Amino acid sequence: MNAIIAAQPRDFLHGRAAAQARPRVSIIVPTYREAENVAPTVAAIERALGDIAWEIIFVDDDSPDGTVAAVRSLGERDGRVRVIRRVGRRGLAGAVIEGMMASAADIVAVIDADLQHDEALLPKMLGAIETGNADLVIATRYAQSGDAQGGFSTLRRNASTLATRVSNLLLKTNVSDPMSGFFMIRRDAIDGIAPNLATGGFKLLLDILASAPESLKIVEMPYQFRPRQLGTSKLDALVIADFLGLLLSKLSGNTISPRFFLFALVGATGLVVHLATLRSVLTTTHIPFNAAQFIAALVAMTSNFFLNNALTFRDRRLTGSAVFKGLLTFYLVCSIGTLANVGVAELIYLRDASWWRAGIAGAVMAAVFNYAVSSMLTWRK
Ligand code: GDD
Ligand code: MN
Predict the structure, then answer these.
(1) How far is C-alpha 331 from the chain's CA centre?
(2) Ligand 2: distance of its center to the CA of 199 in Å?
(3) I need a labelling partner for 186 at 20 to 30 A (CA). Which of 219, 251, 319, 343 fits?
(4) Phi/psi of residue 229, each to 5°?
(5) What is the CA 290 to chain-centroid distance, rounded?
(6) Exposure of 187 in the CB half-sphere (CA atoms within 13 A)
(7) Count of C-beta atoms within a 10 Å radius of residue 178
(8) Ligand nearest to the CA of 161
(9) How many degrees, rounded to 5, is the angle at CA 148 between CA 145 and CA 150?
């Protein structure tokens, strides 16, 4: 018995523990529906890193296609590969942040799971950080010899170039690919700012650049962005709306949250819905104006509710029977908001006699009120 216990630690050292020396770099791979890409991605990274000690942390948002199982079965054979399965949450940036916080190495890299990023660059990126030449290395699709052509459609390339220009302008950064999903950074540069980073959408690097101190040493390395072979891209309208929210929020010096901008955006669509409904009710029925106005308001509020539930508050999305209760509280909040709108506008109109200044003040008042109260009442945390 004693002999067995005494023998154990030594076996450990000579067996797995010796093989699993502390990694020099942790590779974070965010995934959503990438089951078929998991094995090729690990193989590519392993080949690229050679004898550099590494670990790979997949962070999956509970994909329904078996991505987690795919990583686990690889992990059974190779302890350097593991997966964090997040449940009830979606968001690329948040997934990456969680992976970084769970890493064993002092240096962390982020790379997509679809082989669009060139993993062969990893050793060079690591070298730049380990020698102290960089705190952050951005693999960029645009710098001199970098080539984004392969992996992008024309539309996507133009949109991407525009987004890059706008970001650099607003955030006063001047890196050539601030939206890159492929970069490496010293973890201690992330630790402090992690709680302040936005968890939704695709703009983690942008957010890091905006929050990092000026002393952060940044190096860019160009590479060829490859076309996706398997699976589909998850960059959609929601991701773009989210990105606009972040830019506007940064523009306001962080005083206004990205969520509020989404709420205001939805509010603006509500106005369009309201007017369109009013017009069609008035032209197709003989209902009096007041009643038509009431119907239009109800339709607009309902549409706002569902858009906000899907977009603005998607991380607190109401489902099942909670939807009905949520809708009722939202009607209540908006009705009081409308009273506030009319009241404020009238007050200002009496003092100022400018109808448009009064109108804008009323609308802003209602937006702020509806946002503040519905985020406490309808979509409370
Ligand atoms: N955990 C998690 N949660 N992972 C996600 C999510 C999510 O909600 N959405 C996307 N991913 C994963 C994908 O599975 C993939 O590994 C990686 O994040 C990038 O997603 P893609 O859907 O392949 O994005 P893309 O190729 O269209 O976008 C590329 O360009 C963007 C900027 O233009 C990527 O390089 C992005 O990283 C980059 O920000
Ligand atoms: Mn991709």
Answers:
(1) 29
(2) 18
(3) 251
(4) -90, -50
(5) 43
(6) 19
(7) 22
(8) 1
(9) 115
Per-residue tokens: 251: 């523009």
pLDDT band at 20 (very low <50, low <70, confident <90, very high): low
> Can you tell me which atom of ligand 1 is nearest the CA of 91?
8
Query: pTM higher than 0.80 for the full model?
Result: no
Taking the C-alpha atoms of residue 70 and residue 169, their distance in angstroms, rounded to an integer, is 42
Q: What is the DSSP letter of 224?
A: B
- Nearby residues of 263 by Cβ (< 8 Å), 6 or more positions away: 308, 312, 367, 370, 371
Nearest to 194 by CA among 101, 105, 129, 106: 101
Q: Count other Cβ atoms within 10 Å, centred on residue 307.
A: 19
User: Residue 60 to residues 95, 96, 232: CA-CA distances in angstroms?
Assistant: 7, 10, 15
- In degrees and rounded to multiples of 5, residue 186 shows phi and psi of -70, 135
The CA-based angle 54-58-60, given to 5 degrees, is 175
Looking at per-residue pLDDT, the higher value among 338 and 155 belongs to 338
Q: Which amino acid is at 71?
A: V
| φ and ψ at residue 47, rounded to 5 degrees | -60, -45
Q: Which atom of ligand 1 is nearest to the CA of 60?
A: 1
